[in-house]
């Protein structure tokens, strides 16, 4: 039986690894994605005890939700579905939620999250509307995503129960450890960690930054003059590749792929409820399942923390690795 962890105070139990569905439905960012692969991954995941699936209305203009619905046909009751609203406008939250329900072919969302904070909508009003959806049974739990300390505090101060905060977390992106993770632990808010492989970079397949596809080199880790980047910072390219070299050595000593070590390290960290891995094919799922079975020793975790610390210091406590400007 695969271990299950509870999402905050919601009582919803999920596996320590979940399926990230951003690529599903196919689109510009991730390229084509066959429905047959989506369906095969979903079935193999459920068979193995992985029950959490993470999607969003914004992923491929709703096609990710649609593809997930097709994949889960007949097995929806075995799954815990998290989806996200892009624009938390209290006036349109309900109709957006209903549209997600139609695309997901279900009459409830398990965890409904605000994808990113938006300054133009008061958090209190968005959360009040989400609470009404919860009372009406459209959603089981309220979640947020990419909420910084101030924004999460505002959401918690409404008195609503916030089940999870979905945040970027991986060996090369550890900012949440400094302030947000302790805050979530203090208030019993689960953390759904995203991008455990930093979109493929933590598989160790790249040795130079110019080998990384531009869409994946837009993060604050890399220089702002790289295509697609919009963060205005100098990056930390040297520290990234030094950290990768250190991780590579530890993975070699453990005799496991770097991706497995990266996912397992994050799953082992206190405060992390579930790590969402963008899993596009059954062969990837099969490999990633080993990450749930493998528990790194305290020495391995410490060594990984040490080799990634200079990068953490350079990138600092800002947990928005995309633009650097949206999380407070
Ligand atoms: N809330 C947010 O703002 C937010 C932001 C980002 C992501 N997310 C969520 O988090 C999920 C995960 O993040 P992500 O998909 O962006 O990044 P990720 O999980 O770090 O990386 C996904 C990529 O890693 C590769 N991969 C997966 N397993 C592999 C394996 N065993 N060996 C080699 N390569 C492997 C796949 O590449 P190939 O393309 O080569 O198959 C896949 O596309 C998303 O799907 C989404 O649900 C949320």
How would you summarize this macromolecular structure in one to three sentences?
The chain is of the alpha/beta class and 328 residues long.
Explained architecture:
Helix 5 links the parallel strand 7 (139-145) and strand 8 (162-168). The protein has helices spanning 35-48, 63-71, 93-104, 123-135, 149-157, 180-186, 237-254, 258-268, 282-293, 298-315, and strands spanning 5-6, 13-14, 17-20, 52-54, 80-85, 109-114, 139-145, 162-168, 190-194, 272-278. The protein has 328 residues and is an alpha/beta fold. The chain has a domain at 13-201 and 269-296: NADP-dependent oxidoreductase domain (TIM Barrel), CATH 3.20.20. The protein has 10 helices and 10 strands. It has an 8-stranded parallel beta barrel with strand order 3-4-5-6-7-8-9-10, surrounded by 6 helices. It has a two-stranded antiparallel sheet with strand order 1-2. The mean pLDDT is 98. The chain is globular and about 50 Å long. The protein binds NADP nicotinamide-adenine-dinucleotide phosphate. NADP nicotinamide-adenine-dinucleotide phosphate (NAP) is lined by residues 20-23, 54, 115, 145-146, 166, 194-200, 203, 259, 276-280, 284, 287-288.
The number of helical elements comes to 10
Q: Give the rounded overall mean pLDDT.
A: 98
State the strand order across the main sheet: 3-4-5-6-7-8-9-10
Order of helices and strands: EEEHEHEHEHEHEHEHHEHH
Bound ligands: NADP nicotinamide-adenine-dinucleotide phosphate
Q: What best-fitting shape do the alpha-carbon axes yield?
A: globular
Radius of gyration: 19 Å
Number of separate strands:
10
Superfamily (CATH H level) name of the domain at 13-201 and 269-296: NADP-dependent oxidoreductase domain
* CATH class descriptor name of the domain at 13-201 and 269-296: Alpha Beta
Q: What class, by secondary structure content?
A: alpha/beta
CATH topology of the domain at 13-201 and 269-296: TIM Barrel
Report the CATH architecture of the domain at 13-201 and 269-296.
Alpha-Beta Barrel
What portion of residues is helical?
25-40%
């Amino acid at each position: 039986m695969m271990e299950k962890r509870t999402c905050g105070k919601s009582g919803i139990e999920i596996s320590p690894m979940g399926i990230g569905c951003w690529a599903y439905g196919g689109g510009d960012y991730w390229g084509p994605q066959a429905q047959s692969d989506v369906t095969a991954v979903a079935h193999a995941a459920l068979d193995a005890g992985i029950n959490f699936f993470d999607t969003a209305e914004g992923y491929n203009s709703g096609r990710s939700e649609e593809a997930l619905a097709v994949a889960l046909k007949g097995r929806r009751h075995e799954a815990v579905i998290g989806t996200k609203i892009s624009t938390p406008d209290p006036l349109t939250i309900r109709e957006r939620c209903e549209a997600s329900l139609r695309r997901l072919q279900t009459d409830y969302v398990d965890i409904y999250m605000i994808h990113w904070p938006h300054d133009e909508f008061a958090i209190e009003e968005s959360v009040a509307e989400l609470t009404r959806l919860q009372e009406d049974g459209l959603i089981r739990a309220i979640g947020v995503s990419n909420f910084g300390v101030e924004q999460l505090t505002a959401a918690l101060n409404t008195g609503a129960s916030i089940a999870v905060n979905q945040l970027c977390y991986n060996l090369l992106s550890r900012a949440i450890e400094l302030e947000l993770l302790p805050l979530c632990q203090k208030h019993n808010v689960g953390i759904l960690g995203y991008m455990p492989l930093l979109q493929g970079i933590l598989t160790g397949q790249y040795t130079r930054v110019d080998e990384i596809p531009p869409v994946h080199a837009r993060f604050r880790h890399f220089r702002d003059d790289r295509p697609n980047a919009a963060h205005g910072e100098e990056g930390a390219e040297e520290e990234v590749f030094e950290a990768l070299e250190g991780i590579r050595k530890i993975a070699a000593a453990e005799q496991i792929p770097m991706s497995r070590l990266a996912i397992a390290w994050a799953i082992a960290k206190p405060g992390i409820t579930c790590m969402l891995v963008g899993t596009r094919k059954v062969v990837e799922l099969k490999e990633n399942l080993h990450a749930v079975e493998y528990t790194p020793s305290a020495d391995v975790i410490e060594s990984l923390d040490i080799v990634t610390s200079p990068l953490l210091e350079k990138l600092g406590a800002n947990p928005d690795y995309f633009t650097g400007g949206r999380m407070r």
